[in-house]
Amino acid sequence: KAGVTQTPRYLIKTRGQQVTLSCSPISGHRSVSWYQQTPGQGLQFLFEYFSETQRNKGNFPGRFSGRQFSNSRSEMNVSTLELGDSALYLCASSPNRGRGGGGYTFGSGTRLTVV
Amino acid sequence: GQQVMQIPQYQHVQEGEDFTTYCNSSTTLSNIQWYKQRPGGHPVFLIQLVKSGEVKKQKRLTFQFGEAKKNSSLHITATQTTDVGTYFCAGLSSGNTGKLIFGQGTTLQVKP
Known about the structure:
Strand content of chain B: over 45%
Shape of chain A: globular
Number of helices of chain A: 0
Radius of gyration of chain A: 13 Å
Shape of chain B: globular
Radius of gyration of chain B: 13 Å
Number of helices of chain B: 0
Order of helices and strands of chain A: EEEEEEEEEEE
Structural class of chain B: mainly beta
Oligomer: heterodimer
Number of strands of chain B: 11
Largest interface: A-B, 25 and 26 residues
Order of helices and strands of chain B: EEEEEEEEEEE
Largest sheet of chain A: 7 strands, mixed
Structural class of chain A: mainly beta
Strand content of chain A: over 45%
Helix content of chain A: under 10%
Distance between the termini of chain A: 37 Å
């Protein structure tokens, strides 16, 4: 079966711009979580969506937002980009919000560079 | 909020030596998961532990979940160069389904 698909793979943006990243989970998975990965901070939890509703949110400013559609695809948006937003953004899907035996399946990520 | 601490941050071993990484949560967990991320790759799920005191093995890898469900460890016996990568533990809080918090990871280098 197809894995988690994230688009685009690479992105270069200028400070002050906004960006939208997309994630298509594994078919049948209704939970989608987003993480920011940087060398110094590891994997930081951004938010989790389940059945089109944001269920959990990490400690990120309001410039970071997201949504989930009825087909479970998810997008995250970052407005007014800052240099510090440069990171690998990873999306992970799960059939049952992390419970059960299968864990999370990650996409390959979107590498965002802010210049 | 919930925090997951992982040590050591880096470990360099000679091929054939053993390796252990430790994970500690500030809150009781409903389960703990382990992931491996190869250089340039994305995290890949290895295993999930649910029960207090649980021990699971995958070939040369042994995973343990503490009695209090707040700590865990991953032990690799006789490391190989294919074990190179960063190992993350990730905890799912018992009070909050769906918020999987990752430790900082342990990066393993194996010298042939």
